[in-house]
């Protein structure tokens, strides 16, 4: 970085030899121009970049005269995303016009280009790039002087000091940043709904914030208050999932055992689902708009429409929808997807646990639809289950209501075998990707069945390129499950991004196409295997499961993946796509059943999942800390059916064995465990361009003796930027060595940005288009308490200082901003 003071400048030879006491012209000029900045200081890369402009000599007399020019230029460097000031000074002369213009380099927007002091934000670059600017000054008699300034822009850097480990009951962020709490469990989202008492007496969660905030997207809102504006960073809609509940805090004295009272069960049900809320920023502060007409809660009781190949399938028929076209609600919504046409995808993850299936059900199905027993077993719904929270045990005040009975999937011989008189088929109505139009509160969400049925964690689109069929990447969040992508049958048309019938656009791209499952090869290559009925043995003769048609393949996506020999992964969770390269990243959170050698239900280490070890104080063997895998599609196209892969980073404590566990060389500034949430900064701002920032969030139980869960910022490289590594796993008398492919050590390009409060999970992230406000969700603080009167966290009340020891914690959305108003993280 150049020091302006040391730059060589042009000298016009004017030497002061007048030693009289008369007032000097330079004193008059200094007095007149003292408000202007001058080229006296260097550049501070951590705060602001100030670069010199050109000097024009002339006079400020009443009578114009020809200008004599004097100039100095500078060449200095600044990281992308930082503010740059171009400053010209006038030591003498009468100026008519001033104009800064760019003459070379990536185009930037100059602010105050017609003044001596102009500014811009350094653009995103992949490598050091020179920008040139010309300052043209015209005197009143028409003389023109031009002077050139050059600025070298380097790729973005993580411009903050890493946050240390923390066990405190607050959200900690780097110096220079601020945290505000925006939207908490129970906050009212309609006029007339009372403030949340937070003592277990609150009701009507259909008009309050739900619990366990999770995946989230921000959509800019137009001035009309009803349409999208993708450039609005001060007013928008925030759409977020409510995955689950901390049931001990929802009721006055905790949960009542089964049979459950209706008053408790309805609260618990309504606390699940999705929120759509309007948010605004005024005078630097964010708030949600309680009375907005766009506010909406989508719960497990909200009507849903099925769309795609499984619509009207026999296995979707229930007493609620006898033709299999409709359903009620969505549940256990984890990660999300933000569609280019301004809709929101919410994804049904651990839905299977909510269903009751009594003993004897399997025998009934064997006599009618025996394949369903195979299917239910593969999705984890065995006989003898009571169902999460025992909602099926409620006796409703309205005898005709089925909102509790629907959670009992037990089949009986006394009722219709096709399921139209009970809810034996209700489990098949869940496990889907759901599309929501946040700008139309009257719209009915659609379950997109072409994307398959599984423990859907998230669904993120690849790069949307005109004329190319887009892909949507998904993980099935369970041990030893698979990574998928759906490739639309329809090439992308950019005009659809501004369509007014947004769900119709979803019909166009999400209802027809090909679903693939990933197979990772040891040599660093991989294939996308099509899950298409009639291909690769997916037919009625299949020995694993006799598929009847494409709807059967999609309802039983896991069984289809089994049949094709897909690679079992270590809990595939969030997916994220680098907006600059198109490479897809997927968090593999952990896997307790990954062992050195396969046995029973345990899976052996392999190239893509190479670690099985003990991480003290635990004595269990497995991939305790997780890793992040990434793929590069062949020819960098979403339409590819093959790819290359490596592991971007392995989670580990800094103190763990660097040879076989801490393979990425993590240290105290960036060690982590159990990656979960994953997201790239938006391409609408510099943090999401050229070399984008990637955000990693954790949901951990292996590292919490050292620190609470966290969020890290990264600037990842590319697939293949590292090399191969032999990894030996030894435990329980077994040992195995595999060769994996690992990216270059992240070093300073990976830093811990945030640590959350006690017993929380950090999950869900999005930002305003300009990148100056980042929204993050804090889920289930204090989840370990058994007595609501003795909470194990008091957050978010504790964020602003001391809180009463009995204050119950609440999941909440926070907003992070940079105190200087800049783009977060850089």
UniProtKB/TrEMBL annotation:
Please state the span of the N-terminal signal peptide per the UniProt entry.
none
Q: Superkingdom of the source? A: Bacteria
Where is region (Disordered) located?
Answer: 780-806
Q: Where is the composition biased (Polar residues)?
A: 786-803
Q: What is this protein called?
A: Phosphatase
Species the sequence originates in:
Sphingomonas pseudosanguinis
């Amino acid at each position: 970085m150049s020091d302006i003071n040391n730059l060589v400048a042009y000298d016009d030879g004017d030497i002061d030899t007048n030693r009289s006491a008369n007032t000097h012209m330079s004193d008059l000029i200094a007095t007149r121009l003292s408000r202007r900045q001058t080229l006296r200081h260097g550049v501070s890369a951590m705060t602001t970049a100030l670069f010199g402009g050109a000097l024009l000599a002339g006079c400020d007399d009443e009578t114009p005269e020809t200008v004599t020019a004097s100039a100095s230029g500078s060449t200095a460097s600044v990281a992308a995303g930082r503010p740059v000031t171009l400053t010209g000074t006038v030591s003498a002369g009468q100026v008519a016009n001033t104009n800064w213009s760019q003459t070379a380099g990536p185009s930037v927007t100059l602010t105050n280009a017609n003044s001596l002091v102009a500014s811009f934000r350094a653009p995103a670059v992949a490598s050091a790039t020179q920008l040139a600017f010309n300052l043209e000054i015209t005197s009143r008699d028409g003389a023109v002087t031009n002077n050139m300034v050059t600025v070298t822009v380097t790729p973005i850097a993580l411009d903050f000091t890493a946050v240390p480990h923390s066990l405190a009951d607050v959200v900690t962020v780097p110096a220079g940043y601020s945290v505000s709490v925006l939207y908490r469990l129970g906050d009212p989202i309609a006029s007339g709904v009372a403030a949340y008492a937070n003592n277990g007496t609150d009701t009507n969660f259909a008009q309050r914030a739900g619990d366990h905030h999770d995946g989230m997207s921000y959509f800019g809102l137009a001035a009309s208050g009803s349409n999208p504006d993708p450039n609005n960073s001060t007013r928008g809609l925030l759409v977020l999932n409510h995955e689950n509940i901390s049931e001990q805090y929802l009721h006055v004295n905790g949960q009542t055992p089964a049979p459950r009272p209706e008053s408790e069960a309805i609260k618990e049900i309504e606390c699940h689902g999705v929120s759509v809320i309007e948010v605004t920023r005024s005078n630097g502060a964010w708030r949600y708009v309680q009375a907005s007409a766009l506010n909406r809660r989508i719960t497990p009781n909200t009507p849903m429409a099925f769309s795609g190949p499984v619509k009207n399938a026999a296995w979707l028929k229930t007493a609620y929808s006898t033709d299999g076209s409709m359903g009620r609600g969505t549940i256990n919504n984890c990660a999300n997807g933000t569609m280019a046409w301004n809709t929101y995808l919410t994804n049904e993850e651990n839905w299977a646990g909510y269903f009751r299936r009594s003993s004897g059900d399997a025998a009934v199905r064997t006599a009618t639809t025996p394949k369903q027993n195979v299917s239910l077993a593969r999705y984890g719904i065995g006989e003898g289950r009571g169902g999460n929270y025992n909602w099926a045990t409620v006796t409703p005040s309205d005898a005709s209501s089925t909102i509790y009975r629907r959670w009992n999937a037990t089949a009986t011989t006394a009722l219709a075998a096709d399921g139209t008189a009970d809810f034996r088929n209700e489990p098949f109505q869940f496990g889907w990707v759901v599309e929501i139009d946040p700008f139309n509160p009257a719209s009915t969400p659609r379950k997109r069945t072409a994307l398959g049925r599984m423990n859907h964690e998230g669904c993120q689109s690849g790069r949307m390129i005109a004329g190319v069929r887009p892909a949507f990447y998904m993980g099935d969040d369970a041990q030893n499950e698979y990574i998928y992508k759906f490739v639309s049958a329809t090439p992308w048309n950019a005009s659809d991004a501004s369509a007014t019938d947004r769900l119709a656009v979803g019909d166009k791209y999400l209802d027809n196409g090909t679903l693939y499952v990933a197979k990772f090869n040891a040599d660093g290559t991989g294939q996308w295997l099509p899950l298409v009925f009639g291909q690769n043995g997916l037919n009625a003769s299949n020995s694993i499961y006799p598929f009847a048609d494409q709807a059967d393949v999609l309802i039983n996506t896991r069984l289809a993946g089994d049949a094709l020999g897909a690679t079992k992964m270590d809990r595939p969770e969030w997916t994220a796509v680098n907006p600059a390269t198109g490479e897809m990243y997927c968090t593999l959170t952990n896997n307790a059943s990954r062992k050195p050698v396969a046995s029973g239900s345990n899976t052996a280490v392999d190239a893509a999942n190479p670690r099985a070890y003990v991480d003290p104080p635990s004595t269990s063997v497995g991939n305790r800390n997780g890793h992040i895998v990434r793929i590069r599609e062949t020819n960098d196209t979403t339409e590819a059916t093959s790819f290359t892969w490596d592991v971007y980073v392995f989670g580990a404590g800094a103190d763990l064995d660097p040879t076989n566990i801490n393979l990425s060389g993590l240290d105290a500034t960036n060690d982590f465990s159990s990656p979960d949430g994953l997201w790239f900064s938006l391409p609408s701002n510099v943090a999401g361009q050229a070399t984008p920032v990637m955000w990693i969030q954790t949901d951990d139980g292996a590292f919490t003796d050292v620190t609470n869960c966290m969020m890290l910022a990264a600037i990842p490289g590319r697939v293949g930027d590292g090399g191969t590594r032999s990894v030996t796993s030894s435990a329980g008398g077994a040992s195995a060595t595999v060769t994996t492919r690992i990216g270059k050590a992240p070093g300073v390009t990976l830093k811990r940005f945030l640590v959350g409060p006690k017993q929380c999970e950090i999950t869900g992230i999005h930002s305003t288009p300009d990148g100056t406000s980042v929204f993050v969700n804090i889920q289930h603080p204090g989840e370990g308490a058994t007595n609501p009167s003795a909470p194990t966290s008091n957050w978010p009340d504790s964020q602003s200082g001391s809180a009463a020891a009995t204050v119950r914690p609440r999941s909440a959305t926070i907003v992070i901003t940079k105190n200087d108003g800049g783009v977060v993280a850089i």
